[in-house]
């Protein structure tokens, strides 16, 4: 068959009965057709191994494409078809048909093992086997694992280590590797559910009391999960614990530095990265230093570092998603600097490297909107949201619709932003700042926006958290407090048009005309199309200042 079969998706393996019974907690991923929303839900199932009556649970997603290709659920084999082995055109055999590819659909049933091998599903082209794909973080595997794991797509790596964990439930290194694969899957899909699976798996490894290199990598990956979920104290604690094993591994420094960067401890971030400078490869360091240079106002230095990081990742034959992420980050720096051509190239390279990459789709959509090519921006945002609905993409799509006067379509996207932000506890941790900015930008629930921004500012003292705090204070009619927060946001000299736009509007509210004019002019000088709606507001405000 042309379509490859995905693995079952299970984070945790534990004995639940005698013989060969192994209990797994697996996610059930579905699609809400109206919104194209991917939901992660815990599902308890059992995988029975051994014996003639052996069964397994099959979770069969169909690749993520346009909604118009979404096949009705009744086109697929039903649970009864599978359990009773009734013929169905999606099963192998004479006259078998290819299953239609569409938006994410999951079929989860327990079926005989021999029949499960005959279930055909489509898998996204980007996840097909590729000999250049390696496991996570380029960490060495045992010789027997290299050929299988380093030459497999992430789904196959997950399946491989699920089997290894089932066979060796007391081996912490197998849980370590499975956890790493879940982290990579979370990166590729944007689905935070996989971070939960990684956490469960890695914590199981810790219960087995690993030591040395295994303990270091397990705790480092737990730090990665905590950082991704914005659990910053936990990320720092796990990072320090990883270093305490004294194995000399460098990745704990990278994660600690990244955490310090996220919470605004920039000097600590620089010091931590410096500890890697003489021994770490260019790839692991350059992309991190690029972000730090940009924040410090050294835009070209940051772009140069980002380009070096991309080249180093390519030379290291890093996983395609890792390279695509670095190219996306390069595009972000280029866009922020106003270089739309370089940004477009970087996002395009990321999509060629990893087709359907949601971050790059959103980035390219932003470029198209900045180029006033709104009808081209819309499908790009829609494709990004179809992969994983992120609030920043839904909000940006709503803004494009607003620009075009399509208020009903804009309202749908704005409603989706709020839904995503409140969907579950993880989203409420991760998207607080995004939701606060959305509310402030669109004059919605302004007291709630300020509440979210203030809550975020307790844990984070970085440039962009202060910026959102300043903006929400301004929108809540407190420009004096907003100016104090904005001063903190600009303390590093970060050359970001959004920051200067916010500063200009705050000075304008305070009647400080010269400062308002200077900041708004600076914003437009950096990037005249920094935002599809707010760039126009900056222009109008400058005109009002000139005429007043």
Could you explain how this protein is built, in words?
This protein has 548 residues and is mainly alpha-helical. The protein has a domain at 1-128. Helices cover 60% and strands 7% of the residues. It has 26 helices and five strands. The strands form two sheets. Strands 1-2-3 form a three-stranded antiparallel beta sheet. A hairpin with a 5-residue loop joins strand 1 and strand 2 (21-32). Mean pLDDT is 76; it is low at 1-152.
Provide keyphrases for this structure.
single chain, 548 residues, mainly alpha, two-stranded antiparallel ribbon, 5 strands, disordered N terminus
Task: Itemize the secondary structure elements and their pairings.
Elements: E1 12-15, E2 21-32, E3 37-48, E4 55-59, H1 79-83, E5 108-112, H2 113-116, H3 143-149, H4 154-167, H5 172-189, H6 193-207, H7 212-228, H8 232-244, H9 251-263, H10 266-274, H11 282-295, H12 299-315, H13 320-336, H14 340-353, H15 358-370, H16 374-387, H17 391-403, H18 407-421, H19 425-430, H20 432-441, H21 446-459, H22 463-475, H23 479-489, H24 497-509, H25 513-526, H26 534-547
Antiparallel strand pairs: 1-2, 2-3, 4-5
